[in-house]
């Protein structure tokens, strides 16, 4: 039986995480980015491990906002990816839900992310996980000598709705862990 689990990344994981980033993402990051993710100072980097090998990652940054004299927090989902060999098996959704649950436990009110405006499959993936398209940022990305627009998606945590969804999702995840991994 395959053993799949999610844990916080450790410093010795960075080489593999960078390999996956470079293979899966259009935006390339320098060494400082990865060091910052592992620092724990407002950042969380999760990895999916299957049979002892890292096959995916999700990185979050927690931000504090002062709105109408009330301090709230939100999280930015910076990166998320699953090794191409393991895509379309539900592992990315599993990682996303575990990451969202963890961010909610930390007290964030919402999670936002940027996605290439042209990447329709990614939009569907996030919308299937309760992220809503909020707006478009023109020329947000710059790679391959061109500028690309980004869609901003956000998932808000309504305590009443989320508690029912979390209960249901925990049941689904238990079944997934038992049957599929």
Automatic annotation (TrEMBL):
GO terms for cellular component: Golgi membrane. Residues 4-158 form the N-acetyltransferase domain. It holds the Pfam family Acetyltransf_1. Keywords: Acyltransferase, Chromatin regulator, Chromosome partition, Transferase. SUPFAM superfamilies: Acyl-CoA N-acyltransferases (Nat). The keyword Transferase applies. Its EC number is 2.3.1.259, 2.3.1.48. InterPro entries: Acyl_CoA_acyltransferase, GNAT_dom, NAA60-like. Belongs to the acetyltransferase family. NAA60 subfamily. GO terms for molecular function: histone acetyltransferase activity; protein N-terminal-methionine acetyltransferase activity. PROSITE patterns: GNAT. This is N-alpha-acetyltransferase 60. One of its GO terms (biological process) is chromosome segregation. It is an enzyme of class 2 (transferase).
């Amino acid at each position: 039986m395959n053993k799949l689990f999610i844990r916080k990344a450790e410093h010795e994981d960075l080489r593999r995480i960078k390999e996956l980033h470079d293979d899966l993402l259009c935006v390339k990051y320098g060494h400082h980015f990865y060091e910052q993710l592992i620092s724990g100072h407002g950042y969380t980097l999760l990895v999916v491990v299957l049979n002892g090998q890292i096959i995916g990652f999700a990185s979050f940054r927690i931000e504090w906002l002062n709105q109408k004299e009330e301090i709230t927090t939100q999280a930015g989902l910076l990166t998320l990816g699953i090794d191409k060999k393991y895509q379309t098996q539900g592992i990315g959704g599993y990682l996303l839900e575990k990451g969202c649950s963890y961010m909610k436990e930390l007290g964030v009110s919402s999670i936002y992310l940027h996605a290439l405006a042209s990447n329709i499959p990614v939009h569907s993936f996030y919308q299937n996980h309760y992220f809503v398209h909020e707006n478009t940022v023109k020329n947000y990305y710059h790679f391959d000598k061109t500028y690309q627009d980004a869609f901003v998606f956000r998932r808000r945590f309504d305590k009443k709705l989320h508690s029912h969804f979390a209960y249901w999702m925990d049941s689904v995840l238990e079944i997934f862990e038992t049957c599929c991994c």
